[in-house]
Write a structure and sequence with these properties.
The protein is α/β, with parallel strands linked by helices and 542 residues long. The chain has a domain of 98 residues: GMP Synthetase, Chain A, domain 3 (2-Layer Sandwich). Helices cover 28% and strands 25% of the residues. The protein contains 16 helices and 25 strands. The longest helix is centred in the N-terminal third of the chain and has 17 residues. The chain starts with 11 loop residues before the first helix and ends in a 9-residue tail after the last helix. The protein binds adenosine monophosphate. Adenosine monophosphate binds next to β14, β19 and β20.
Length: 542
């Protein structure tokens, strides 16, 4: 017997329809690339998103067409979130911090049709425009007055011109909720980046779960400022959550330094924010140096890499801002766990509670997790057994875009590449990472790329690149090199060899020369041994 309920597909557009009808006057505030502060409401967002959707449809961006963005967090980017996915196309958020070669590779792989960009990234657009294979038009996300007088980019359009030439008489289409809504690439451990293709259904289910009190705890009483970029896994879902709960939205634009962020927090009464540890260092540094206080901030979500315990304590003890330590992955939409306490923790001492808070936390509804040993056997939730963390759920990929890399699942579970333990109460703690990528300030640096370049140097026999601890960036690349017999090579020559081959910030912070690199049974470099050996290595930049 079937239930007798209405069939309403879970579509991204439903979030905007809800926000417009029930929170129409709620504010959205953005620091613009143009330098000023822009304000409007959900009602305006909805009307302009419909205009943009109509424009996209008129330009033949039909179902499944990939529409790319290279943009900061701001209202125009938010309009594209809804206009693109809502009209049935697929929003592809490109990461502007990547090297132009990688941006070209990813845009080609995604077969992007049109690319919207913030003016900050015009030089990057000029570098890639003649090289990308499928992009037919580039849209500068600005008004006519701020368009460049001349540009090398053919087919350059102006965002506000497109909005002005359209109207908002547009009905969001209804379609299968399993249709693709957005696409985000992750730098896998080996080979080329791979795309995670989210569906409307997975996005909505993730949004419901992420908004819950024990997850990100968002409501219409909040003003949310996502510091995490909208090109990092959809800003951890906050642009969708804000519409679902009717929260005020505050966008920092390109102003991610401590001073600019603090000003936005205070002037807009921000109650909750989210970002990687690195950005909070900048903010805390500014607040501490100027003896400031947070007058409205109640919570901040810290994730993307491990939150240093000292940071958690500073936020909570000195500033009264609750820290929610969170863990997730691009492949998981991204939220996996959030560290919020249980009723039993109320009775504990502050010290004991802190120990719990340092962990990565409990799963949000919709995610299941387990840890397994080297043979794949499940290990107990005892807080002692450590194994590879496996996850499954309706907002976790079943395969990568275009099936890149084959079937990633093992018995229906997604192997995260993280090594963790889980305690009796279900709190997970990452103890290590089995994958070798380096995570600097929340951004991936592919160790394999760095090794390949080093090994292309005529004086290098073998090279391994590992993550070394850095107080600001969490991890930075350290290159371990074995020279060819009789060859001469200095640290400076090795580092100079990277110039022009990668984004500058990918360049290793230091080089150490060794006689041999430990190899495993299959001839693979045993980077875990190197990581152990250089655990306490002090980088010159630290
Ligand atoms: P990404 O796909 O870029 O979001 O990276 C996902 C990876 O970042 C995870 O598999 C972890 O290795 C790491 N990560 C994310 N959050 C945390 C955290 N809170 N603590 C430690 N590692 C984390």
């Amino acid at each position: 017997m079937l239930g007798q309920m209405m069939q309403q597909p879970l579509l991204v557009s439903s979030l905007l329809i809800h926000a417009e009808r029930h929170h129409g006057s709620q504010e959205i505030v953005s620091r613009r690339v143009e330098g000023d502060i822009h304000r409007y409401t959900y009602r305006d967002l909805a009307a302009r998103s419909r205009r943009m959707a109509k424009t996209l449809v008129a330009r033949n961006m039909g179902p499944s067409a990939r529409v790319a963005t290279l943009a900061w967090n701001g209202y125009r980017h938010l309009e594209l979130y809804y206009a693109v996915s809502g009209s049935g196309s697929v929003l592809h958020t490109l990461n502007p911090r990547l090297h132009p070669d990688q941006v070209v590779w990813i845009a080609d792989d995604a077969e992007d049709q049109i690319l919207f960009f913030d003016m900050t990234f015009l030089p990057l657009i000029e570098a890639i425009a003649g090289r990308v294979k499928t992009i037919k038009a580039f849209v500068a996300m600005t008004d006519r007055a701020h368009m460049p007088a001349t540009s090398k980019v053919a087919n350059l359009l102006c965002y506000e011109d497109l909005i002005d030439a359209s109207d908002d008489q547009y009905d969001w289409p209804s379609f299968d909720e399993n249709s693709a809504a957005s696409l985000c690439y992750t730098s896998g451990t080996t080979g080329n980046p791979k795309g995670a293709l989210y569906s409307h259904r997975s996005t909505l289910l993730h949004t419901y779960a992420a908004a819950l009190p024990d997850a990100l705890n968002c409501s219409a009483r909040d003003a949310i400022l996502p510091v995490v970029p909208m090109f990092h896994v959809n800003a951890w879902g906050l642009p969708y959550i804000a519409c679902m709960v009717g929260a005020k939205m505050v966008f920092p634009g390109p102003g991610l330094d401590g001073k600019s962020l603090y000003e936005m927090f205070e002037s807009e009464g921000v109650t909750i924010s989210a970002g990687v540890p690195t950005v909070w260092q900048g903010l805390l540094g500014h607040v501490e140096a100027n003896k400031l206080r947070f007058s409205s901030m109640r919570r901040t979500v810290i994730g993307g890499s491990a939150c240093p315990p000292a940071m958690l304590q500073t936020f909570q003890d000195r500033y009264g801002v609750q820290v929610l330590h969170a863990w997730g992955m691009t492949e998981m939409s991204p939220l996996g766990t959030v560290c919020s306490l249980k009723h039993k923790h109320e009775a504990m001492s502050a010290e004991e509670r802190l120990k719990v808070q340092f962990k990565q936390g409990r799963v949000v509804y919709g995610v299941d997790m387990k840890i397994v040993d080297a043979e794949g056997k499940e290990l107990p939730f005892d807080g002692k057994s450590s194994g590879e963390l496996m996850v499954r759920g309706s907002a976790i990929i079943s395969s990568y875009f275009k099936s890149a890399g084959g079937n990633p699942l093992v018995d229906g579970w997604f192997p995260t590449g993280d090594v963790a333990l889980i305690d009796e109460d279900g709190y997970m703690q990452i103890t290590d990472r089995s994958k070798d990528v380096i995570k600097s300030g929340g951004e991936w640096i592919g160790s394999i790329d760095l090794e390949n370049i080093a090994m292309a140097h005529p004086a290098v026999s073998i090279a391994a690149c590992i993550a070394a601890h850095h107080p600001k960036w969490d991890e930075r690349p350290l290159l371990v090199v074995v020279r060819k017999p009789g060859a001469e090579l200095t640290r400076e020559q090795m580092l100079a060899f990277y110039e022009g081959k990668i984004a500058k910030w990918w360049t290793p912070d230091d080089v150490v020369f060794v006689d041999a690199i430990p190899l495993g049974a299959t001839g693979k470099m045993q980077k875990n041994k190197l990581r152990d050996a250089y655990k306490d290595y002090k980088l010159p930049t630290a």
